[in-house]
Amino acid sequence: MIPFNKPFLTGKETEYIQDAVASGKISGNGKYTKLCHSFFESRYGFKKCLLTTSCTDALEMAAILIDIQEGDEVILPSYTFVSTANAFVLRGAKLVFVDSESNHPNMDVQTIEALITPRTKVIVPVHYAGDACNMEAIMQLASKYNVYVVEDAAQAINNTCTFSDGSKRYLGGIGHLSAFSFHETKNIISGEGGMLVINDERFVQRAEIIWEKGTNRSQFFRGEVDKYGWVDIGSSFLPSEIIAAFLYAQLENLEVIQEKRKALWNAYYHAFQKQNTHHLLLPETPAYSENNAHMFYVVCSSLETRAAIIAALKKQNVLAVFHYLSLHKSPYYVAKHDKRELPHTDRFSDCLLRLPLYYELRLEDIDNIVSIINA
Ligand SMILES: *Cc1c(COP(=O)(O)O)cnc(C)c1O
Predict the structure, then answer these.
(1) Is 275 inside any structural domain?
(2) Residues 170, 317 share a domain
(3) Which of 36, 223, 245, 359 is the most exposed, fewest CB within 10 Å of its CB?
(4) CA separation (Å) from 210 to 61, 143, 178, 240?
């Protein structure tokens, strides 16, 4: 049986968890949390990182930080996970969905400007499959119209976007704020887990307060204030040291994990290039993006073809999955959507198929999967 995903353990996770437990401090913001923060800040140059209990939580923190008010408009793709939208809807925002590009699930940046109004507060690019959105164009729009950019970088760890001056910038380090996920289906995991990245200095102090339930506890522990109390809204966004210890073991092995995933991704790509009897479209990484091998997907010619392929794989004990159901057609939002058609989003929703990709998948498994699909 080949599952869709299998969480990979590097071997040190339980050792570090035991160390955290033995230290007598297992609530949040201790040794392992700080090790994880430093890892990200030094490796990627992110200004300030805060681990969260999920990417969903990091997105909710971002919506609080940019002070989303009732009726503010949020520009985001329809082809994304529900949390990208929910975080802003929780604060009363109105969603303005952008269609995907014709050849990539990422939102079509060309169509964003026409959707900006005086109520637009933020653009939320989602780097689907870890592939960069056109961040240079998005940041230009944001500065022209004075709106924020919050990157949903849930899938985008260790990946870059190249700007026209040739510079490469890490995804998650470009928008004012960004959110990463360490859910067990992502490249680097902690079961559930996430991180808020604060690239805009103005948000750093308030982010720590929101993170610590609306208190200035972080400042207190640094000795900056002599007592701590309730100073703002917030919630319990920080994970325990147990989660951070698990995550740190993964981070120490990031290179190894990424190399393996890229080898598997390339094996799929070459196997399909050699033989592709169903006119499946292969993923096209945009020219300005590197590939972080978060996901291998194909785009089928129809919903029927996709269903037939999933059934054939299942018969041979291979689990392949699809997602997302477009948010503009979701039961919760369909009546609130402004009625614009989003044809490319609908096509990816009907035709995109995700294939198994995890550290322990073997190259011969990939040959098998591709043969089953072709047969
Ligand atoms: C996984 C994912 C999320 C949610 O991450 P959690 O850590 O499970 O909250 C949000 N957005 C995108 C694009 C994702 O892929």
Answers:
(1) yes
(2) no
(3) 223
(4) 7, 26, 15, 16
